[in-house]
Amino acid sequence: QVQLVESGGGLVQAGGSLRLSCAASGRTFSSVAMGWFRQAPGKERERVVAITWSGGSTYYADSVKGRFTISRDNAKNTVYLQMTSLKPEDTAVYYCAASVGIASFDHHGILYWGKGTLVTVSS
Fold it and tell me: Are 61 and 47 in contact (CB under 8 A)?
């Protein structure tokens, strides 16, 4: 079993930045792909970013390319999401997630979910 705990959410003005963290505990953190989904009010949960265990491969949704950067520190069992140039449409609950591989990082392949952290971007 893996437990994922997110932190770093909050309120920020449009154009600002935030960094989210996801700390993993439990069984081995290595060899799994990690990343983030988000769910805005009244909308479905959507995949945002993901990174392989080695960090050698990443996925970014078109809506965040060039603005968000994912990274991970396996020694600390932590994955990070640096968000810049934030827009009001980025407002959502951000969920950390883990899957067997980056190819499985979708709604059907997620093995573990965090409880989420709220990001609010004001205009």
Answer: yes
